[in-house]
Amino acid sequence: MKFELGRCLLNERLHESGITLEELAGALLYKQEKLLDFMDNKRIMPLKTAISIAETIGCDVNSLYELIPIITDPL
């Protein structure tokens, strides 16, 4: 099954984890602006970044974005 990425759920995952944006940025050595760009859907997280974020805040990498199934016609 194929998926399209919906909105970024990083803000919600941060809230659930109790980790602040500042703490996440410091742990990953990222600028807060970069993380805010993901949260505002201005940029899509590369897979390595998403894995690092998920490991740091203790969530599943698939929970960082809304996943919208794409229905395709079978051949």
Span of the ends, CA to CA: 14 Å
Helix content: 40-55%
User: Would you count the extended β strands for me?
Assistant: 2
Which ranges are low-confidence, i.e. pLDDT below 50, for 5 or more consecutive residues?
none
Shape: elongated
The radius of gyration is 13 Å
Estimated structural class: alpha+beta
| Portion in beta strands | 15-25%
Strand neighbour order, sheet with most strands: 1-2
Average pLDDT rating:
95
Oligomer: single chain
SS summary, helix count: 4
Largest sheet: 2 strands, antiparallel
Question: How would you explain this protein's 3D organization?
Answer:
Helix content is 47%, strand content 17%. The mean pLDDT is 95. It has helices at 10-17, 21-28, 32-39, 47-57, and strands spanning 2-8, 65-70. The chain is built from four helices and two strands. By secondary structure, the protein is of the alpha+beta class. It has a two-stranded antiparallel ribbon with strand order 1-2.
Map the helices and strands.
Layout: E1 2-8, H1 10-17, H2 21-28, H3 32-39, H4 47-57, E2 65-70
Antiparallel strand pairs: 1-2
